[in-house]
Amino acid sequence: MGDFPTPLGRVLGKYLSEFEPGPENPLMLTRGRVVPQFPWDAMWYGTAGWFGVPEGPDMEKVLPMHTNFPSHLLYDKEELFHVLGENNDETSTA
Length: 94
Known about the structure:
Layout: H1 41-50, H2 57-62, H3 77-80
């Protein structure tokens, strides 16, 4: 693994510290399987918002399962992207 820069200097989510299955590590199953801590919709919720999909019926069409998860597990567009003109005074990427 290399040292790669990430947007905002961080990686979202959690990474396991132990990869041995057992009672002290319930997220690690046998044969190398891992139980995810965040739903697939977590990243797509913020991505859809960045593309301009508003919360409500339109988001229900794009991500029909997102309401099945607590909102704190879904990333919003500000957590995923540096949105120019909304989060700060910058007007261009140059």
